[in-house]
Amino acid sequence: MENRDAILTIPDENGSLPPKAPNLSIGQWFRKNLFSTWVNGILTVLGTAAALLMLRGVLNFVFSENRQWDAVRTNARALMTLTYPESQYVRVWVAFGSVVVLAGLSAGIWADWGRLPARRLAGWFMGAAGFLAVCILVREPSVLMDLEGKTIRLPDGSLVRESFASAMTDRANWWAVVALLLIVGGVIWRSDSDKKQLKITQVTYLGIGLGVLSLWVAPYGHYAFTDGTYIADPNSTVAFSTKMPWTVMWIMLAIGFFAGRWLRTSSYLVLAKAGSNLLWLISPVTLYFVILRDPALDYSHVFSTDLPMGLAFGILGACFLWFLTRSDIGEIGRILATAMLGIAIFNWVAAFFGWYPMLQKARISFLLLAVAALLAPNFVGEAAKRRQLLLGWLGTMALVHYLATMINTPSTVELQSTEFLGGLGLTLFVAVFVVLLSFPLGVLLALGRTSKFPIFRILSTSYIEVIRGVPLISVLIFFSVMVPLFLPDGMELAELGAVLTGYTLFSAAYLAENVRGGLQSVTKGQYEAADAIGLTSAQRTGFIVLPQALRVSIPQLVGQVIATFKETSLLAIIGLFDFLRVANSVIPAQSEFMGVKREGILLVAVIYFFFNFVISKYSQRLERRVGLGER
Amino acid sequence: MSIDDATTAVSEKLAGREDMIVCVDVDKFYGDFQALKRVTATIKEGEVAVVCGPSGSGKSTWIRCINRLEVHQGGDIVVDGIELTNDLRNIERIRSEVGMVFQQFNLFPHLTVLDNITLAPIWVRKKPRAEAESMARALLERVGIPEQAEKFPGQLSGGQQQRVAIARSLAMEPRVMLFDEPTSALDPEMIKEVLDVMKELALSGMTMMVVTHEMGFAREVADRIMFMEGGEIVEVGTPEHFFTNPTEDRTKLFLSQIL
User: Fold this and answer.
1) Residue A4: pLDDT band by 50, 70, 90 thresholds?
2) Which helix (H) or strand (E) element contains residue B207?
3) Which long-range contacts (CB under 8 A, 24 or more apart) does A344-352 make?
């Protein structure tokens, strides 16, 4: 929003802003907010002391001479992708790079970030400087080491620490950073005599630029393991020395962002928005199953079975749908659509009892065809509308058959364990996939539960109540251990597939309850008004009810997304190596880092926090933005 | 002008017009409670009919039966030649012929004023967006708030919201407009701006059925006034007849209480 501030404080009829409270001086502010009574004064002092002590504890932990950060640094790749083979690591770059480009593109297209008072930016720099200074001051002086790198102890066993003064001089580099931040903040503050507003996009350009530059400055110890010691290469910087070419990633982010900015002003904006949304939707599947897994396509099978089958479904289905959208179709259309639904359901029943063999994607295609046939009455009419349905059908078929073929083909990645991906890669993949899939399912369940048709209501309600009555761990164990026993012969579900299914079904039940809360907040008058202007019930749900319901439930939905992300750590229980498990059991089991656990777990905690903090901040923004129409 | 003259004048105005809304022996029950008792009335094309009566008399229930927001259990309702039955297609056809304005406005708070108005023309009437938008702007001009098109309903006053609601109904180019106590939720100073829009609409020849307590509006604009009590139509007449010489005691009592 370009002029968000202008909307938040609405000028009155004369165009003047409401009067502001007078600014307090720093002393007045302290007296008013922190020391207004003597009880408040004591609480302020105690609270500050507690905060400083905690900060001191954390810093002492992180910088303690007992910490072996090498364990994390050496295992950086294990934490990210576990055993993904070195020879094919370029696939990880491509996958990560695609996400980066897409992120830059979306940020460029969608972001309308408004303006930022220059003084607030200056305040951030100075605040960072102040915080860093406090950190430097409260951390304990370091323990003295002898020439062999061992700690020096007094006869009574206590450690010898350097003096406070020498500690402060040893931390001269950090003081320099504090000074730099202060100078930058001060320059911004002083140069801003007329209280300018900076465009946030400009600040972002600056941030990206600094990010790229920092890679060329930030040192990267390239640690080589020889004869039981690590040798750091002091001369390399992060820019090109890691396995992941961060410089390239930054530049791709910038390219994506500028391309998005350009598209924003071009005439392709609508197309670009739809395209980037679609790419986000299919990216988890394609990145995981196509790019990372690198399926070994058997072309004779592709040309003899997969391709003809996809074409047959596409073309025959299109003819069928074209017939169903004739304007003189009448009741025959409904009968045919119902018959198609019957066939589709029968195929699944047959699969369960093993009556006749059929490829899974054929069953899925039949089901989709039945759904399209049921939707067909909405597209009866002139040729343009009928063509819309046909195009939608052909696109869906192309996507479904392509992905099904890719997923069914074995991977060429040389596996060292049952699952080729682990670490943060697995955590993120599962989280994103589960959220994407469980969202529509949850919305459908919520609509079912509030439906006026008893059968939908009973089915949804019992589903939700059953799932919510069972712990996630048991759902995961059920799906990984029990479900394969129930499947017919010849039908297999990979461990990860089983887990994704179970977790999605679990998460959907919770999402459904959150959405239902939102649905209940939509007043009866909204339904009546939608009916009165002649909307069909599907239009009423899509345009009037759901947007309002989802808006109301944003805080709970985001809470659910965060919970889903964090609870992926339960994947460890059924044998997958997620991020936390790598830090908790893989690294401490290495001979050179036997039992070194805390460093990795702290890092994992920080990364979890980072992601969830970003999600949470974004949702606050979203709430503020969609709250516009309320009031 | 005597009562008989006035009645004749109205009959002359409406003579030869088509029947727009025909209700025959309409019954409506809430459980054991009978909200409408054999309500029978015919509203002609271009007629402005005001329905009044004490609260709980069934007037809102009746008007809401006409576009099927409430389901009647007995009798027939025919709107513009289409009979209101359980057939969904008939209901959809009637709803796109009949506009409705609610006491609580019921604008869509998440859409701008313009989107509120263009939603149904685009998705129900299948108009191109540009055409729907230019019509919406013309309608906003007509109800006197062209400058509010880009705002959200929550940023408007009650009177402005109700005028947007009228524009939203008109955007479907309805043949009949139903008003369910359109001014009851408004502050007194905003009532007039809404009534002015309704008067203009009446003069343009729109068939209107208005449930209201605004007797000034009824006297000035209505062709006929129907008085309801206890789920029945007690008295029907021209405004002159109704205000100067009502025949029923219940009507007299009601008028003495509100005038």
Assistant:
1) very low
2) strand B207-211
3) A344/A369, A344/A370, A351/A488, A351/A491, A352/A488
| Chain A residues 491-550 within an 8 A CB cutoff of chain B | 523, 525-526, 528-536, 539, 543-544, 547-548
Q: Is the ipTM of this complex over 0.90?
A: yes
Tell me if B154 and A536 make a contact (CB, 8 A cut-off).
no
The 3 state secondary structure assigned to A160-204 is CECCHHHHHHHCHHHHHHHHHHHHHHHHHHHHCCCCCEEEHHHHH
Inter-chain residue contact B110 with A531, CB threshold 8 Å: no
For A217-246, write each residue's pLDDT tens digit.
776 655 554 444 445 555 666 666 666 677
User: Is A384 an 8 Å CB contact of chain B?
Assistant: no
Q: How confident is the model at residue A631 (pLDDT cuts 50, 70, 90)?
A: very low
The rounded Cα A53 to chain-centroid distance in angstroms is 34
DSSP string, A19-80: PPPPPPPHHHHHHHHTSSSHHHHHHHHHHHHHHHHHHHHHHHHHH-TT--THHHHHTHHHHH
Chain B positions in Cβ-Cβ contact with residue A386 (cut-off 8 Å):
none
Smallest CA-to-CA distance from A489 within A345, A349, A354, A347 is with A354
d(CA A250, CA A104): 10
Mean pLDDT (chain A, rounded): 83
Quick: pLDDT tens for A253-267: 889 988 998 998 888
What's A586's DSSP letter?
I
Q: Are the Cβ atoms of A533 and B119 closer than 8 angstroms?
A: yes
3-state secondary structure of A9: coil
The residues pairing with B52 across neighbouring beta strands, listed in sequence order, are B227
CA distance B161 to B178: 17
Q: Does the distance separating the beta carbons of A533 and B154 come in below 8 Å?
A: no
Q: What's the one-letter identity of residue A578?
A: D
Using CA atoms, how far apart are residues B195 and B173, in angstroms rounded to an integer?
Answer: 20
Spatial separation of the C-alpha atoms in residues A557 and A512, rounded to whole Å: 9
Instruction: Count CA atoms closer than 13 A to A444's CA, side-chain side.
Output: 11
> In the structure encoding, which two tokens stand for residue B162, read together?
């109700």
Backbone angles phi, psi at A435, to 5 degrees: -65, -45
The domain limits of chain A are 65-83+415-631, 85-296, 298-409
Mutation site, B110, B150, B152, interface A, largest A CB count within 10 A: B110
Superfamily of segment(s) A65-83+415-631: MetI-like (1.10.3720.10)
Cα–Cα dist A333/A374, whole Å? 9
Residues A532, B99: C-beta atoms closer than 8 Å: yes
User: Which of B92, B107, B111 lies closest to A534 in CB terms?
Assistant: B92
Banded model confidence at residue A9, pLDDT cuts 50, 70, 90:
very low
**Which mean pLDDT values do the consecutive 10-residue runs of chain B (259 residues) have?**
55 77 93 92 92 91 92 91 85 90 93 94 88 94 92 92 95 94 90 93 93 91 92 90 89 86
Q: Transcribe A283-309 into DSSP letters.
A: HHHIIIIIIIT-B---HHHIIIIIHHH
The pTM score is 0.80
What pLDDT, on the 0 to 100 scale, is given for residue A202? 78
Mean pLDDT of A570-583: 88
Q: Which residues contact A521 (CB under 8 A, 6 or more apart)?
A: A548, A549, A552
Please judge whether A626 and B110 are an interchain contact, meaning their C-beta atoms are less than 8 angstroms apart.
yes
Query: How are the residues of chain B apportioned to helix, strand and coil, as percentages rounded to the nearest 5?
Result: 45, 25, 30
Give the torsion sign (CA, A27, A32, A34, A35).
positive
Q: What is the DSSP string of B239-259?
A: HHHHHH---SHHHHHHHHHH-
Rounded Cα–Cα distance for residues A48 and A50 (Å): 5
As a whole number of angstroms, the distance between CA B11 and CA B34 comes to 32
Which residue from A minimizes the CA distance to B117? A533
CB atoms inside a 10 Å sphere around CB A450: 19
